[in-house]
Amino acid sequence: MASKLHRLGLTAALILTSPLAAQDAVRPSDAVDPFIGTGGEGHTFPGAVAPFGMVQLSPDTDTGCQIRDCYGHAAGYRYDDPTIEGFSHTHFSGAGHSDLGDVLVMPVSGDTVPMDPGTPAAPGYRSKFAHATETARPGYYAVTLDGPGVRAEMTAGTRGGVHRYAFPKGRAAHLVVDLRSSLYNYPGKILWSGLHLRPDGILTGFRETRGWAPGRKLFFAMRFSAPLTGHALVDRDKDVPYRGFQGPGRGSDALAEKLGKALEARLDFGKLDRPLEVKVALSGVDEAGAVANLAAETGDFDAVFARARSAWDDALGAVAIKAAAPMKRIVATALYHSLLAPSVWSDADGRWRGPDDQVHVADGYTVRSTFSLWDTFRAEHPLLTLIQPERTTTDVVRSLVDSQRYSPDGILPVWQFAGRETWTMIGYHAVPVIADAYMKGLRGFDANAALDAMVASADAKAYGGLGEYIARGYVPIDKEPEAASKTVEYAYDDWTIARMARAMGRTDVAARFDKRAGNWRNSFDAKTGWLRARKSDGSFRVPFDPTAINYGSDYTEGNAWQYSWFMPQDQAGLIRLLGGDRKTIAKLDEMFDYDNSKLDYSHAEDIAGLIGQYIHGNEPSHHVAYMYNFAGAPWRTQERLAQIVESQYKATPDGLSGNDDLGQMSAWLVFTSLGFYPVAPGSNEYVIGRPFVDRATLRLPNGKQFAIVADGLSDANRYVASVTLNDRPLTRSVIRDEDIRAGGTLRFTMASTPNKVWGSDAKARPYSMSTAR
Question: Which SUPFAM superfamilies has this protein been placed in (predicted)?
Answer without folding.
Answer: Six-hairpin glycosidases
